[in-house]
Amino acid sequence: MSERSVTADPGSDLHTTAWNWVLRLRDERASPEELAAWWLWYEADARHREAFEEMRTFWQQTGRLVESGRGVDVAMLLADTAPASTSNIARPRAWRRTALATFAAAAAIAVVAVGLTLHQRPIGMSASPAMPLVRESRLSDGSTLTLAANSSVTDHFNSQERVLVMHGNAGEAFFAVAKNPARPFIVKVDDVQVRAVGTAFNIRRANDRVVITVTEGIVDTYLQPHDSRARTNTVRVGAGNEVTWNVAGTKEPQVTPIAVSHATAWQKGRLEYWNEPLASVIADVNRYSQRPVRLADPGIGGILYSGTVFTSDIDAWTQALPRVFPVDVETRADGEVVLVSRTQPGEPR
Asked: Fewer Cβ neighbours under 10 Å: the N or C end of the chain?
């Protein structure tokens, strides 16, 4: 892709208008009238579209997920580095400082990076051909199951209990459980099990990492190997918290508080992370990407990532990684995208 520069003054009214649209559209309460007004403005002029895409990219690449007790490192964001994107866009420091002041103020409430046309979209409609469908199903007991892209769950209900099994090494699902004390609701993810009666929770698996986020009620989580009836390390988790398990049982489960919107953002086209190993992020991303990403060096997988990935813009996110982490992105002759550790000049890989 050829490089380009912006001829318009980044501090101009056009870019200010575009920035304000980004801030308005990130709010999921945006009305249909506001969306229609934005679309008319966006389509009216190619300069509008270019300015909006620049502001959206800037928000996306600086949009740190802010939850309770987590701040925004404005000093770091004000560093003299260009926003990560697929284009080389020059922006004077003064403009960036103004935009980041707005960003920091908004972050005091919450930071949710905007995804174009993803708001108020009925389940079953995709924002673009690159964004797979979110699938919602009503189970025989009245519970609701919402599945993310390339995720698989089967149910094995009987008169005593309601058992579901998540398949594969990567997947995500949200469960809204119909209350029935006589028939506990159990989800199995390899050796990790989640037991509930009437509650709602999200499960995300990425390789050996299983994250259970409770949005309503309380669940018990524990390890129970396939060849054993014994439970180990039972952890009770209440609403507003998540527990992270290792399916191999090599690490102790970790419980942390979390905003429930963080866990369900994938239903609206956003994958949101806080200190997530890059290997787990890549496993999630690959369920959405038309060109899966491979880690050439295992050490890269341990890098911790915080931020938002748009499921409709995976390529841009991948190409931005070298601006933040010591990695390079290589596209092989067969189209495969590979992340490799960055080496010093003259140092062999």
From this structure: N
